[in-house]
Amino acid sequence: MASPTFRSPEEFRAVMDRVFRMMSEDPDMGPKLHAADVPQRFAFFDVDLVVNIRPTLPGEPGNLHWEWSDDVAWEPRVRMEMSADTANRYFQGKESIALAIARRRIRTSGDVKAALTLIPITKPVHAAFTAVVDAEYPHLKVG
Q: What is the pTM of this model?
């Protein structure tokens, strides 16, 4: 079976914006991710996109703030580079971050240990994201 593929970088960005919004607005996940305070930079080499994410500052809505740019006013504690497919698999609960790092599907630098502490916090997004994929992006479904 062929690997699920995003139709364009724009579709990938729109889908990831939904994921980040779900995590930021979730009443359990959002505050925990904010409190963890682990700014991250993700590079998705196959769609040529970079996103930087940090906790919101006082006065900003939600719990997370992200910008699709490297021109940001903060430094990430951890950097990860992966394909859009790896990100899709992870957010559907089909990719282990630790295993993907070990197999070099995700390249990392910085405080990787801090990033790994976020995995249990973000686990509830898998079911929510999979429901969005099922309803709106069936071509991205991972078996």
A: 0.92
HSE-CB for 46 with a 13 A CA cutoff: 14
Q: How far is it, in rounded angstroms, from Cα 18 to Cα 132?
A: 9
CATH code that applies to domain 9-134: 3.30.1050.10
Beta bridge partner(s), residue 49: 44
138 in the Ramachandran plot: left (φ > 0), alpha (ψ -120 to 50) or beta? alpha
pLDDT in tens, 79-115: 999 999 999 999 999 999 889 999 999 999 999 899 8
Half-sphere exposure of 5 (CA within 13 A, CB side): 7
Which own/partner contact pairs does 69-74 have at CB distance under 8 Å and 24+ positions apart? 70/41, 74/39
